[in-house]
Amino acid sequence: MIKITFPDGNVREYESGVTGLQIAESISPRLAQDVLACGVNGETRELNRPINEDATINLYKWDDPEGKHAFWHTSSHLMAEAMQELWPGTQFGIGPAIENGFYYDVMPPEGVTIKEEDFPKIEKKMQELQQKKEALVREDISKTDAIKFFDQRGQHYKNELIADLEDGTITTYTQGSFTDLCRGPHLMTTAPIKAIKVTACSSAYWRGDEKRPQMTRVYGITFPKKKMLDEYLQMIEEAKRRDHRKIGKEMELFMFSELVGKGLPMWLPKGTTLRLLLEDFLKKIQKRFGYQQVMTPHIGSKNLYVTSGHYAKYGKDSFQPIHTPEEGEEYMLKPMNCPHHCAIYASKPRSYKDLPLRLAEFGTVYRYEQSGELHGLTRVRGFTQDDAHIFCRPEQVKGEFLRVMDIIMIIFRALNFQNYEAQISLRDRENREKYIGTDENWEKAERAIIEACEEKGLPAKIEYGEAAFYGPKLDFMVKDALGRRWQLGTIQVDYNLPERFQLEYTGTDNQKHRPVMIHRAPFGSMERFVAVLIEHTAGKFPLWLMPDQAVVLPISDKFNDYAQQVRRQLEDLGVRAAVDDRSEKIGRKIRDNEIKHIPYLLIVGEKEVENNTISVRKQGEGDQGSMKVEDFAKKINDLVAEMTKNY
């Protein structure tokens, strides 16, 4: 008999060799129907694999990430099997589950190009195969036999993967006529996969290397019920409507130019207003919390990044060094702000009385992303981080964490990000060799993060082994209006850079000590944050953040001068306003400006000129009646003051 411990701490005894499915059946038939995979001592497994020793167990259903992962991983194999039948001779790369669905990288036979018109054909074949309810059979295989097996089938990409694996660790999974090199986990059979949709295809370099062959990456998603797929497809349509690239163009916020360069966004006047409002908002908060603003160059000596370690990490995939006329002199586009801030810290002697020192900068950095990876504002080559670096004593880490968490919470509340979660990333429990810094400092920092979350009442998932080599961290994941998860705020503890730059402060004992460095970026990058904000709000920003809070619409050209007079008056009274003086009918102007999500439309004609008023129309609510310009401005300013009074 073996002892099985459940998540609630209950322990039951079962015969050795019991499976996850049998354990589920022993609890309830309904659970056995719903369970998709199980976790045994933290490892996700198939439900039919025997358990031969005492273990802790988790039973994963569809609502569990591990359950979805097994479901979608199996679906990727089902899609590969379908493509193998449709196009014999297809070579297969990798086919992982991803956050929403799965993909498979394939090299079709010569003369075959997989395109969108082929999606229904792939779906139909997947459905045919699914109806066979094929079992997924796991097999341990030696390295020699694996290479021979895949070589006979012409699967050269699989053999390249096998070359990197250790003998004795290699497994395959077979369903029907398809066998894949795979570690799992999977469903027991393809039976639960009821609703299937192939969603997209694109090009992808083999193993992400631009010098390697381009493969076809086919994406799909599956569900246990058709209703779930229908809801998902509706959500995708809504996501298209909210696409920040589409809304950004409609609202004239930003643009890209091939002539300027790929992945280099340019902020248009309205987008610049939006971004500066966000920056000013954070600057005011930071000032309250004792931060000092600094500014550093967009380039730096290559030696700066060699010292910091960023050249070793980013040098190969970064923009190449800039050579000057002076022999041997090299500069680099700045990939990170932190080395510059370390140089500022080191510019003069520091005492324990100077700490914590909080340096903040909206610093633009540059990283070379592959062309195929670029996407609107979310993946760019030049972006601005709302960076700050806090230099403090070890005993100050917890207090600084609490203050940074306060800042992040203020931002989330102000921008209506109500659904968020936190993850604490700590060292691996066993392998401590890959981390720098003393055990004592690590334990202090890890404890400080955990206690800070407890004090704030913030539920946080702890992940061991996910810490950076230089220190533990706390990441904030936000769910937007469509339920998509985005990582926004991050707080990281760093023992590495103070060591590399030999940073010191004089302690109360008159001895030299090494400060601890905390990296924090509540927004992350301004570009990515604005993209998330656009899609979360569908462009309907809070009134205090709208680039144009109102637009004046003259009924005809003869009222343009009055419209401009109203705009200037509003600007003088602190309201951001524009004028639409195009020679268009008023109905067209109203429709066009509603698309731009401008909160208030101010219509002016003969009656308004005579009475020195404006006719107010509110976005989504229609006519609000006539008002004096001063009264309207007061209303807007009062609304903004009420919205921002706690920030």
Automatic annotation (TrEMBL):
<dbReference type="GO" id="GO:0005524">
    <property type="term" value="F:ATP binding"/>
</dbReference>
<dbReference type="InterPro" id="IPR012947">
    <property type="entry name" value="tRNA_SAD"/>
</dbReference>
<dbReference type="Pfam" id="PF02824">
    <property type="entry name" value="TGS"/>
</dbReference>
<dbReference type="InterPro" id="IPR036621">
    <property type="entry name" value="Anticodon-bd_dom_sf"/>
</dbReference>
<dbReference type="InterPro" id="IPR047246">
    <property type="entry name" value="ThrRS_anticodon"/>
</dbReference>
<dbReference type="InterPro" id="IPR018163">
    <property type="entry name" value="Thr/Ala-tRNA-synth_IIc_edit"/>
</dbReference>
<comment type="subunit">
    <text>Homodimer.</text>
</comment>
<keyword id="KW-0963">Cytoplasm</keyword>
<dbReference type="GO" id="GO:0006435">
    <property type="term" value="P:threonyl-tRNA aminoacylation"/>
</dbReference>
<dbReference type="GO" id="GO:0046872">
    <property type="term" value="F:metal ion binding"/>
</dbReference>
<dbReference type="GO" id="GO:0000049">
    <property type="term" value="F:tRNA binding"/>
</dbReference>
<dbReference type="InterPro" id="IPR002320">
    <property type="entry name" value="Thr-tRNA-ligase_IIa"/>
</dbReference>
<feature type="coiled-coil region">
    <location>
        <begin position="112"/>
        <end position="139"/>
    </location>
</feature>
<feature type="binding site">
    <location>
        <position position="338"/>
    </location>
    <ligand>
        <name>Zn(2+)</name>
    </ligand>
</feature>
<feature type="binding site">
    <location>
        <position position="519"/>
    </location>
    <ligand>
        <name>Zn(2+)</name>
    </ligand>
</feature>
<keyword id="KW-0547">Nucleotide-binding</keyword>
<dbReference type="InterPro" id="IPR045864">
    <property type="entry name" value="aa-tRNA-synth_II/BPL/LPL"/>
</dbReference>
<keyword id="KW-0436">Ligase</keyword>
<dbReference type="InterPro" id="IPR033728">
    <property type="entry name" value="ThrRS_core"/>
</dbReference>
<dbReference type="InterPro" id="IPR006195">
    <property type="entry name" value="aa-tRNA-synth_II"/>
</dbReference>
<comment type="similarity">
    <text>Belongs to the class-II aminoacyl-tRNA synthetase family.</text>
</comment>
<dbReference type="InterPro" id="IPR012676">
    <property type="entry name" value="TGS-like"/>
</dbReference>
<dbReference type="InterPro" id="IPR012675">
    <property type="entry name" value="Beta-grasp_dom_sf"/>
</dbReference>
<keyword id="KW-0820">tRNA-binding</keyword>
<dbReference type="InterPro" id="IPR004095">
    <property type="entry name" value="TGS"/>
</dbReference>
<dbReference type="Pfam" id="PF00587">
    <property type="entry name" value="tRNA-synt_2b"/>
</dbReference>
<keyword id="KW-0648">Protein biosynthesis</keyword>
<dbReference type="GO" id="GO:0005737">
    <property type="term" value="C:cytoplasm"/>
</dbReference>
<protein>
    <recommendedName>
        <fullName>Threonine--tRNA ligase</fullName>
        <ecNumber>6.1.1.3</ecNumber>
    </recommendedName>
</protein>
<keyword id="KW-0479">Metal-binding</keyword>
<dbReference type="Pfam" id="PF03129">
    <property type="entry name" value="HGTP_anticodon"/>
</dbReference>
<dbReference type="Pfam" id="PF07973">
    <property type="entry name" value="tRNA_SAD"/>
</dbReference>
<dbReference type="GO" id="GO:0004829">
    <property type="term" value="F:threonine-tRNA ligase activity"/>
</dbReference>
<keyword id="KW-0862">Zinc</keyword>
<dbReference type="InterPro" id="IPR004154">
    <property type="entry name" value="Anticodon-bd"/>
</dbReference>
<keyword id="KW-0175">Coiled coil</keyword>
<keyword id="KW-0030">Aminoacyl-tRNA synthetase</keyword>
<feature type="binding site">
    <location>
        <position position="389"/>
    </location>
    <ligand>
        <name>Zn(2+)</name>
    </ligand>
</feature>
<keyword id="KW-0067">ATP-binding</keyword>
<dbReference type="InterPro" id="IPR002314">
    <property type="entry name" value="aa-tRNA-synt_IIb"/>
</dbReference>
<feature type="domain" description="Aminoacyl-transfer RNA synthetases class-II family profile">
    <location>
        <begin position="243"/>
        <end position="554"/>
    </location>
</feature>
<keyword id="KW-0694">RNA-binding</keyword>
